[in-house]
Amino acid sequence: MCSEYRDPWVDVRTYHGLPADQVISALQKEIRRGNTENAALLAYEMVITSPALEDYLWYRLMVISVEDIGFGEPQAPVLINALYQMLSTFDRGAGERKLFAVHAVRYLCGCQKDRSSDEMVIWMSHAVESGEIRPQIPDYALDMHTAKGQEMGRGRRHFFEEGARLNPELPDRDRTYHERIMKMLEQGELD
Fold first, then answer.
1. Residues carrying CATH 1.20.272.10, the chain
2. Global pTM?
3. How many CB atoms neighbour CB 106 within 10 A?
């Protein structure tokens, strides 16, 4: 992190006088460890402090659903976003708003956790910045959808044989239409 960066929440105190930056940090650490009760209390503190801190709570919960839950529960971002969208139907003064925050935190605490996407981003950021790696364009990507592929004369056959290849492919998937397309290509009915 840049040494010039200053977290704006450093200067904010919560409703009960806690440093907001510490509450935000503790919330994420407690969700990571599955410490539901304290995580819910921290979220509650954020909600009752101010609309700005409540909004930031939801921002953090969305990040946590990807950064810390990840493939442990791939639908976590969908659920958190759904709860956040539902929340928009309630006025700021509605007591039910706390219910959505606590429910979201309880859900995230109970999820299996996986930080591999965040770890991959951290690794890539360093490796790209240092010049160690760069993205590659594989030959099979040069198909009828690219200027280079068109120059190479690659058409639908190449696309369906190479460009549309799936891995991992659903076992026993319906291949009816793929086979029909390949037959049409064989017979010259499709170019």
1. 8-117
2. 0.86
3. 15
